[in-house]
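Sample 1 of the test manifest.
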Amino acid sequence: MDFDSAKLIAAGLAVMGVIGSGIGIGMIFSSFISAVGRNPAAADDVRAMTFIGFALVEALALFALVIAFLILFGISPGA
Amino acid sequence: MASPLEQFEIKPIIPIEIGGVDVSFTNSSLWMTIAVVVAGGTLAIAAGRGAMVPGRLQTVAELFYEFIAGLIKETIGAQGRKYFPIIFTVFAFVLTGNLLGMIPYSFTFTSHIIVTFAMAIVIFIAVTVLGFVKHGMHFFTFFVPPGTPLVMYPLMIPIEILSYLSRPISLAVRLFANMMAGHILLKVIAGFVAAMGVFGILPLALVVALTGLELIIAFLQAYVFTILTCLYINDALHLH
């Protein structure tokens, strides 16, 4: 297999890591919606934590994306 | 067709070289200067008068102050008041940098890992030094979560140390990757607008929606960077 095809396959495999982040973000917002549904008065208290949690989980998706970019654009044959 | 990565190129505007080291004034430095002038100037003009009953502009400045002061009070508590200037500066710098990057033809200096890593490593070293100054050698008890049985120590302590050392990396990569990925996505979809002719209205609608999302992400990433800095300071001051 030549180098460029290997790079493309590797980048595709690396970016599959965002699946976990998709599930995680879905869980965060689903529990936010349930919490607000049960207790609307608590909406402001939980909203701050929701967005912090979202940003932290999204960061992991972006780590996977950064690795994919590094593979695609950052290495040369013989490295 | 230009590559979507060309927007991140650093171009020197005033080439300066001191002793073989390239310290030119680049487009990145230019936009950092613009961010400082915009953030500092807006706050100076808005709050400069210091009226007892604030007008509209002063209320906006007070809103920012209250926001960060409230953040510090809930994460660090009363001891955090002396760290207010650095936390406000970090928030204002990152927020202005992210927002200025949304202007067409501008440069997002927070989309470079070296910029975000420099900020993150400085914050990390400062917070660690703060922890040692405040607690001395007792700081190392931070790596033992309260309530672990003695048998678990050889497993927990390396894991805790590793997760502590990964803080600057995650702080830096979170901001950098969010900004870079957002801008690349915008460029790629915008490239389709011209290529699709009449049907280009669909990628155009998508670009409008993505720009809105990017503005939200700009605020959110600045907020998360700031609140994580506050949480790290809280860890250093209060250990558990």
